Amino acid sequence: MTIALIDYGAGNVPSVERALQRLGATSQRVTDPSCWASASAIILPGVGHYSAIIRALDERNLRPALLDSISRGVPFLGICLGLQALYSSSEEAPSLSGLGLMPGVVKSLPHSVKLPHMGWNRLSIVRPSALLQGLSEFDYFYFAHTFAALNADSNCDAVATCNHGSPFTAVLERGRVFATQFHPEKSGAPGARLLQNFLSLAALSPLT
Amino acid sequence: MSLAHRIIPCLDTDGARVVKGVNFVGLRDAGDPAQLAARYNSEGADELVVLDIAASRDRRPTFLETIRRVAAELAIPLTAGGGIRTVEDARSVVRAGADKITVNTAAVERPALITELSAEFGSQAVVLALDAKFEPAINAWDVRVRGGRDSACLDALCWAQRSVELGAGEILLTSMDRDGTQSGFDVALTSVISRAVSVPVISSGGAKTPDHFAQIFSEGAADAALAASIFHDNVQSIRELKQFLALRHIEVRLPC
Asked: Which residue in B41, B124, B198 is closest to A144 by CB distance?
């Protein structure tokens, strides 16, 4: 199977690539929509500012092809900003439109706690998810973000939440769209397990 | 449930090899960076910092290759620094595999560098390395630059707060009074800075015993603690340190 790894210049693309290699999977960096027609899964990694990912998706004309692939049922995994990009918009760059697959606006975590939310935290699992198979609330994952999908606004697709000043969506799943606010590629053995789960799901998913 | 306190080993390198020494004097070889990185990754380190303490221009390609070799061994975040003066310098370090970059002297000399890096890579990737030394004459901590050798004539607390306003997402705070002494972290310094800024603070300098770590988390309000030689020399195992902290009810990520 081929995994299209959307490369818009985000810093964590090589890390995701290495994490997939350790699992024996080959990925292909894609920078324009023509490259991923045959992809059996898509990963959108991201780190940094919301405007960087949204601008890159539009400047490289990736948005229509990405939405088309997702609507055809190609398994998708968004990481960090790749989760936030699924929502309508973000307070971090209010003038830009997100992919709009999830309702709600990405907002800042409260300033009552240290920001960025930086380091290892655990999940509260809301409902069973194939992506979290073999993982539990005892496992730690690595987060590095200030903005998040706060629970009060949009938690219907959250399969796991985390809490840093406020509860927020840590893992979401809707059909074959998956996303994590944390970085599985930087989260040791539990992160590797999550990526392995995604690969297994992708291989099993019959494409429509 | 809350954020775990992080334990971070630091690899001081001459670009290619891990070195040890106090204030750049009597440097001696302490091993291969990639081998140490692999060991710390499996022992339960929460992050790794790799610094080029020589930071000379002509050895830059060597250090970038070291970052690549270290990153290949890690399933945890990597911070790299030493000699980063421009966005381009930082980009080469990020492309080589670093998740975060540290800036020190160059940021003191040109504070706008912090804002430029934050705009380019996000504040979560920009770590201000702040070397502080207590100055009795002013009853405050002074910022030291160029590997701790020179005074910047800058109040450490003011500089920490300013760096956050400029876009730093984390502060790596080294006590020049404690560095190399193994007499414990500087609780007073760390507590003052950590409580005054809105970003996480990594305390560095002076660690030896597990009690030192417990103290810097509970009394010093540190979000993370960094050490080098006690880990390299197996004076302290990361796994046992974390078990000790967990028994003291300090939240840590226990390795499997």
From this structure: B124
Interface contact flag, B124 A121, Cβ < 8 Å? no
Kindly tell me if the per-residue pLDDT of A154 is higher than 60. Answer: no
Give the model's pLDDT for residue A36: 78
pTM: 0.95
The residues on A that touch B, with CB distances below 8 Å, are 11-12, 14-15, 18-19, 22, 47-49, 52, 111, 114-122, 124, 137, 140, 142, 144-146, 163-164, 183, 185-189, 191-192
pLDDT bucket at A208, cuts 50 / 70 / 90: very low
Name the residue range of residue A131's domain: 3-204
Provide mean pLDDT across the span B131-145: 96
Q: What is the DSSP string of chain A?
A: --EEEE-SS-TTHHHHHHHHHHTT--EEEESSGGGGTT-SEEEE---S-HHHHHHHHHHTT-HHHHHHHHHTT--EEEETHHHHTTEEEETTSTTS----SEEEEEEEPPTTS-SSEEEEEE-EE-S--GGGTT--TT-EEEEEESEE-BTTT--TTEEEEEESSSEEEEEEEETTEEEESS-GGGSHHHHHHHHHHHHHHHHH----
Q: Is B99 close to A188, i.e. CB distance below 8 A?
A: no
Closest-CA residue in chain A for B117?
Answer: A48
- pLDDT band (50, 70, 90) for residue A48: confident
